[in-house]
């Protein structure tokens, strides 16, 4: 009886120490997905802008895309961003943005202007990259945004990741 009580105490102590750590790790991994994929999307959009040509003009941006998938999920789901039924599939394909793992968030790419010869304009062009997710199924969404701007000097990514209701 004493041995069983000791065993239960040890199991309780182990659970009290490791369960909160495990739950914190799971939550952090959910948030890391958005941060990593938004950075990848930003890098791909910058590369597209730097190397794209259309009708003899360069410095192009494709039109808006997303949200893809249309609705975020609590569980990981594999999504083909290039599939014809996804919003903005041709833009995702042009950017080469196809996550190599299942996702929880909906991703959106939105330039304030698209087209070519954007480096010769006086207007500031803003690119917004957004990830929205419902991490715990309560219909409250976490939103993460990364931005970049284009001006006469070229592509300028924002070094910060904006988060609204980070862990909802």
- Report how far the terminal alpha carbons are from each other: 44 Å
Structural class given helices, strands, pairing? Answer: alpha+beta
Helix content: 25-40%
**Beta-strand percentage?**
15-25%
How many H/I helical runs? 2
Q: What number of domains?
A: 1
Envelope shape:
elongated
Q: Which radius of gyration do the C-alpha atoms yield?
A: 21 Å
Number of strands: 8
Biggest sheet statistics? 6 strands, antiparallel
The parts where pLDDT drops under 50 for at least 5 residues are: none
Q: Can you give the mean pLDDT?
A: 84
List keywords for this structure.
2 helices, 168 residues, six-stranded antiparallel β-sheet, alpha+beta
Describe the structure.
The protein is an alpha+beta fold. The chain is elongated and about 85 Å long. Helices cover 34% and strands 24% of the residues. It has one domain. Strand 1 (53-54) and strand 2 form a beta hairpin.
Question: Outline of this structure?
Answer:
The chain has 168 residues and is an alpha+beta fold. The protein is built from two helices and eight strands; from the N terminus they run αβββαβββββ.
């Amino acid at each position: 009886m004493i041995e069983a009580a000791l065993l239960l105490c040890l199991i309780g102590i182990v659970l009290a120490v490791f369960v909160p750590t495990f739950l914190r790790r799971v939550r952090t991994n959910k948030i890391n997905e958005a941060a990593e994929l938004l950075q990848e999307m930003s890098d791909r959009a910058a590369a597209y802008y730097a190397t794209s040509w259309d009708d003899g003009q360069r410095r192009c941006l494709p039109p808006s895309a997303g949200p893809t998938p249309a609705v975020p999920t609590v569980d990981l789901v594999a999504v083909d961003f290039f599939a014809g039924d996804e919003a903005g599939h041709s833009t995702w394909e042009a950017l080469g943005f196809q996550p190599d793992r299942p996702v929880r968030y909906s991703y959106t790419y939105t330039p304030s202007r698209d087209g070519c010869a954007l480096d010769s304009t006086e207007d500031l062009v803003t690119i917004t990259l957004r990830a929205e997710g419902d991490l715990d199924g309560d219909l409250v969404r976490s939103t993460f945004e990364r931005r970049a701007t284009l001006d006469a000097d070229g592509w300028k990514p924002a070094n910060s990741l904006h988060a609204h209701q980070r862990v909802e």
